[in-house]
């Protein structure tokens, strides 16, 4: 006989007057409650609604040098000066690395992304939302993406500088959260404004971020083609004590930066994808990295292909989270004696993963040049999409296939 105190009836009877010291914090809705109450112009449009211009909505903006509020304020501009980058990131929540990608790296990566994205749309396996097309699992879709994940100067010439800034902002030992392409297509909606470390809400880390995003800008961006919306300085909560985390905020800008710039931004910075007013796609990559205890956005343990796994360096395996240790990712006890060092054989999840390999077929590099020869049925993802993804309707696929080809 189960004691009466443990029954659902008894528990619900004491629910209203129970001692629940954490409820007001857990149900606070912060940071978004105070952000939207104090800045209602930040509310996103609903899918299907026409965008409303001239009314002060967050997406109706321009680049800093043309912006009524921001034009006389000294915001970050692209630089190679490490000290300045550190100050910009701390002060404004973002910094811009000038020529972080060489012209050659930039055009090579843009071409690869554009081709992959077009092929995924053509095959109806892409991921499209109202604000963007996303190309996920880039780790499997080209050697330069593995290069980016390792900050290899052959793929990103500013790699060592990016690593240094990440180390100084997050501490060493960070992991990748995700690496994807964010493609603002002609006619896309603005993305809701958000903070990339929202997944810890309502916890707000006042002292430092727990996520830093590096955005690889693959063509010139500005207010016309969807330069990312940023609220400079919004990484710092500005609310009055007892009145919510955030008070009134200044309006966003559209990012203006030349191709090859690397935007690094604080996980607490309010930002969002912008409207693309042109007839061309706008390509950027975003690579968020996080403290190594965080759960990753992309489940690399499952998502990385056997081919990439076979070639992976210890550095890459660590950053993908494929190293178990006493406090993380044990498999039947394996890893408990790990030393939490990169390359430690006592916690190699690659050794575990290889024993599962064979049944799942990953999507790899795709190209419009060979897309007609591809049998999508070979991809395990396609079976899962068909069985599980309720949004992948005929109409959705038609919309995906009707987006313009890259120019
Ligand atoms: Fe974001």
Topology:
Blueprint: H1 8-13, H2 23-26, H3 32-38, H4 82-92, E1 94-97, H5 103-122, E2 127-128, E3 133-135, H6 143-149, H7 159-170, E4 175-184, E5 211-217, E6 229-230, E7 253-254, E8 262-266, E9 271-272, E10 282-290, H8 300-303, H9 306-311, H10 314-319, H11 349-356, H12 380-388, H13 394-402
Antiparallel strand pairs: 1-8, 2-3, 3-4, 4-10, 5-8, 5-10, 6-7, 6-9
This protein binds fe (ii) ion.
The site of fe (ii) ion (FE2) has 3 residues, from loops.
The total of helices stands at 13
Counting DSSP E segments of at least 2 residues, the number of strands comes to: 10
Give the rounded overall mean pLDDT: 96
SS content category: alpha+beta
Overall spatial form: globular
Output the CATH homologous superfamily of the domain at 28-291 and 376-389. q2cbj1_9rhob like domain
CATH architecture of the domain at 28-291 and 376-389: Sandwich
Terminal Cα separation, in Å? 72 Å
General description of the model:
With 407 residues, the protein is an alpha+beta fold. The protein has a domain at 28-291 and 376-389: Jelly Rolls. It has 13 helices and ten strands. It has helices spanning 8-13, 23-26, 32-38, 82-92, 103-122, 143-149, 159-170, 300-303, 306-311, 314-319, 349-356, 380-388, 394-402, and strands at 94-97, 127-128, 133-135, 175-184, 211-217, 229-230, 253-254, 262-266, 271-272, 282-290. It has a seven-stranded antiparallel sheet with strand order 1-8-5-10-4-3-2. The protein has a three-stranded antiparallel sheet with strand order 7-6-9, with no helix packed on it. A hairpin with a 4-residue loop joins strand 2 and strand 3 (133-135). It is globular and about 70 Å long. 39% of the residues are buried. Bound molecules: fe (ii) ion. Fe (ii) ion is lined by residues 194, 196, 271.
